[in-house]
Amino acid sequence: MVDVKEVWKHKLAGGVQALALSIDGQVIVAADAGGTLHVFHQDGTLAWSRPLGGPLAALDISSAGDLVAAGLRSGTVILLDRTGRTLWTRESGCALHGISLSRNGKYLMTGTADGGIHLLNIRGEPIWERKARGPVPAVAVSSSANFAAAGSEDGSIYFLDNYSTNMGGKITWSLPTRGKVREVVISSDGFYTAASTSDSNVHFLDKLGKLYWSNRVDNTPASMAMSSSGDLVAVGIEGGAHPGAVSLFHRNEGLLWRYHTGDATVGALDMTANGAFLAAGSQNGEIYLFHREQKLLWKRPVDGWVDALALSSDGNYTVAGTRKGNVYLFDNRAAVGEFRPKTRDELELEVSLFRPMRTAPAAAPEGPAPAAARPEGASRTAMEIVVAICLLVVLGLLATVYILMVMGTIGQVMGVALLIFLLVVMVILIGVFYRFVLSRGGQSKNRSFY
User: What pLDDT is recorded for position 5?
Assistant: First the structure.
């Protein structure tokens, strides 16, 4: 294991309850037990501190680090900018449990004790409200808020569609579970959702409501994280009758591996965008960094239970907060450097954090495309355009000949002969289109999943 470098440590007035980190790791937000927000730069300098008037229930940050969303237990929702200025404040009317800020910072989702699921815009104005039959401790929204998921103590996972409803928030499906939903995560594009429940189960679904698997773990899940693509899900398990553990799941294969951390709960977890690296913090006062191939890169003791943790998108930095009020920043670059992609092909296999709306890949072994794949695709596109234009021309000529026959401009015999000739040409073109475009395109390894 690599001897990781502790870059800095800061002591807050109370225990660290929540942490959030911008994509590049340059902006670090920590909330202490007294309800004060502290924002640090990556070099350890304090940018600002701001008391919010009460303990926090949840905290989130935009990708760029320019917006911070804080939800107080009392039900107050606050949005602040990078300088600590309050942009708006909104009262939920009851205790607030969960909060999720879209990565682009344009939408904010909350879950409340009365079963409320709310979506707000960047100005704090309500877009819609939906109701569950019990408190909603877990909400998650995709990068651009096209899709969202919520978990309720009524024992249901809810999936909401903003994409096809013009931000209408339609509940397209709900999955009843035997236990209360504790955590919900969603992929960046909203194609995949995972949730953990109090009956020691982890569930994985797609946006159509198809249940890929439900996996029972040794104890109650306490924390959860998902890669940007949704291919990987990490779960931190409570300690007690069984050891605390970190488990990694794949969307198609289910459980990949499990690492036991002793008798303490793994209550804090985060994952890089591409799922290559996973950081975990446990209540035995230890922080772990893993590679997805079941390799422990480093383990480090800290002062107190780790209740909050965040990992930069590239895996270079880990920030952790303890119940004793210490915030740590660790430099992972020496540990993760050897796992960086070295070739262009390897770089292309890395998952982008902001994926466009895509068709999900088929469940097949992944690998670099053959060298001829790109030129062949380009030629297919050119062939498709040429054949399509020719088909349009032939259809136009067919219509013209028919009209001329009706008007009597050309004789019936000549007209029928021309129509038969054009139909033969059209059949040939359709055959060419199928042979050189559709049939080869259907052999692609990246066909649509849906």
Answer: 86
